[in-house]
Design brief:
Elements (H helix, E strand, L loop, with lengths): L2 H4 L2 H22 L1 H24 L6 H24 L4 H20 L5 E2 L3 H13 L4 H15 L4 E2 L5 H15 L3 H30 L1
Antiparallel strand pairs: 1-2
């Protein structure tokens, strides 16, 4: 089986990401609250995957494998668990899943240092955090609708690296045990979502001042 010769350490973490995502899906049916822990493990695996890929040689299948894993953990899982918790939001879950897939497919054909459209992982963090704090149906619907379109928009989002990424990983570990951490995760997700818009407005205002 020659495929194993093409799999790098980073690729192994991508597979682990998908396995954690699948486990979260299964647990969401039998043990709803525990499923979030496996979702956080998937996020951490995804972060380590990207970090290791930069430190080591990239494989030929790395980018595709990463997107496939993200589809399970950050697209199917959040869409499924929202519909499981509130069937009335099925239409919004379907929109989230469809636009997540579009976003991941576009990512695979682009060669950018930054992200085009908000990452599926950020969208998944926001949606799952809102679920854990028992946000209202209206808030969930609005968040899913807005972030679905942000995933396929043409705004540039900076990659999170270094200490901010480590800090986020620590928050995810704490969130397993402390539900209130989700409020901080929601705030971080929203700030990240609006950051490109703030930058565009700032550039526009600076131009106006020069005129």
């Amino acid at each position: 089986m020659k495929i194993f010769k093409e799999v790098s350490l980073a690729d192994s973490l991508s597979v682990l990401n998908a396995l954690f995502g699948f486990t979260a899906l299964v647990y969401s049916i039998y043990d709803y609250e525990r499923s979030f822990a496996f979702f956080y493990f998937a996020l951490i695996s995804d972060g380590l995957d990207g970090w290791i890929a930069k430190k080591t040689e990239k494989s030929k299948i790395g980018k595709e494998l990463d997107s496939l894993a993200d589809c399970v953990s950050f697209s199917v899982y959040p869409a499924f668990i929202v519909s499981l918790k509130n069937p009335n939001l099925f239409a919004f879950s379907s929109l989230l899943l469809a636009f997540s897939i579009l976003r991941l497919a576009r990512f695979n054909i682009l060669d950018l240092n930054d992200f085009l459209g908000i990452p599926t992982s950020v969208n998944a963090i926001l949606v799952t955090s809102l679920l854990r704090i028992n946000a209202s149906q209206e808030i969930l619907a609005f968040a899913m609708f807005t972030f679905s379109f942000l995933m396929i928009c043409d705004l540039r989002y900076k990659r999170v690296r270094g200490l901010p990424l480590i800090f986020l990983g620590l928050l995810l570990v704490l969130a397993i045990f402390i539900v209130e951490i989700c409020y901080l995760l929601i705030a971080i997700s929203i700030l990240y979502a609006i950051y490109p818009g703030v930058c565009v407005c700032g550039k526009y205002l600076r131009r106006l001042r020069r005129v």
